[in-house]
Specification:
By secondary structure, the protein is α/β, with parallel strands linked by helices. Helix content is 39%, strand content 19%. A six-stranded parallel β-sheet has the order 3-2-1-4-5-6, with helices on both faces. Strand 1, helix 2 and strand 2 form a beta-alpha-beta unit.
């Protein structure tokens, strides 16, 4: 990691026009890492723009700097122009261009240097500088380590610390996932010293729900099925559920974790049908202890992620999706 950071700092030694982007459907770590880096690079006197493939959930609207965000799906021509004028492009929290959806073509055509900073396994190798650390719990934590190894901790301010804390909090399940260690908590202690309001950050993300989210939670729990002998919980939300309850981006986030709250359950899955495409399901997996969600998602659902948190896709009707899941679970 240190050698790659030295190469990166050589690129940053003179003023650059820089774009930062992340994966489609950006979550707390994607937004947190992007805007932490955004504020840091601005303080180093660079010209910086954050571009996301599509819109983030409303509960992230408070993030410092997010009013300056450019959204590719809404203004593709403007975003392409920003990219074409940039000297340097950071891609954060993904390591395969497919994860950038429609923005991936523009990234593929980018003529400047590309820097990837990510913590997922098996990077695709598209970048000029690849900073990949699968053992680190979040990309936001990697941004902190990048700043630290660059001997620029003194540059961190409340905005940067707030963004890093957001990403670390959300990608560790509020610091409960495996991989959280003494180093993680030392970084959190450092971030708190910059005067961040950790209580406000938590409440803004987890305690500012619309009624639509609670209605969808109630439906998912009503659909709950347990496979006790496999220590597994299954939930689902179909297209009609989403439309009837005025689903908004982010409403289904975190529902899968409720399965793990049951005694004796070590693996939880939720199937969520695409609101705009029938028989296309986004799948979220969560686990406890050593059950490898990422391996299961990769082998059976064209997905991936981390040991205890992963995602995948399935095309077909709901019954076939669940039956295929059960069959795959037996095989795995």
């Amino acid at each position: 990691m240190r050698a790659q950071i030295e190469k990166l700092n050589e690129l940053l030694s003179s003023k650059k026009r820089i774009s930062i982007t992340t994966h489609t459907n950006p979550d707390g770590d994607a937004i947190g890492s992007s805007f932490a880096l955004y504020h840091f690079l601005i303080k180093l006197n660079h010209e910086v723009t954050v571009i996301t493939p599509n819109r983030h959930p409303d509960f992230l609207d408070w993030v410092p700097g997010i009013k300056n965000l450019e959204i590719y799906d809404e203004y593709p021509d403007k975003c392409k122009k920003i990219l074409s004028d940039s000297d340097l492009l950071f891609t954060l929290d993904f390591n395969d261009l497919k994860r950038a959806s429609n923005l991936s073509c523009a990234i593929d055509e980018f003529n400047g240097k590309i820097v990837m900073i990510d913590h997922h396994q098996n990077p695709d190798g598209y970048s000029d500088i690849e900073i990949s650390e699968p053992d680190i719990t979040s990309t936001s934590e990697m941004i902190y380590k990048f700043i630290e190894l660059s001997d620029k901790i003194h540059v961190i301010d409340k905005n940067i610390a707030t963004c890093i804390y957001l990403g670390m909090m959300t990608d560790t399940g509020s610091f409960q996932y495996r991989g959280v260690n003494d180093s993680t908590h030392k970084i959190i202690s450092s971030l708190l010293s910059f005067g961040i309001d950790n209580n406000k950050i938590y409440n803004s993300v987890y305690n500012s729900n619309e009624i639509s989210k609670l209605k969808l939670l109630s439906i998912a729990l009503k659909n709950l099925e347990l496979i006790v002998e496999k220590k597994t919980a299954i939930m689902f939300l179909n297209q009609a559920d989403l439309i009837k309850n005025n689903h908004r981006k982010g409403d289904s986030e975190g529902i899968v974790n409720y399965g793990l709250s049951l005694k004796g359950i070590h693996f939880s899955v939720i199937f969520i049908e695409d609101e705009n495409e029938k028989n296309k399901f986004k799948i979220s997996f969560r686990s406890k202890e050593d059950f490898p969600c990422n391996e299961f998602a990769f082998k059976f659902f064209n997905g991936g992620g981390h040991l205890n948190a992963a995602g995948g896709l399935y095309k077909g009707n709901l019954n076939s999706a669940i039956e295929y899941f059960k069959k795959s679970l037996n095989e795995f």
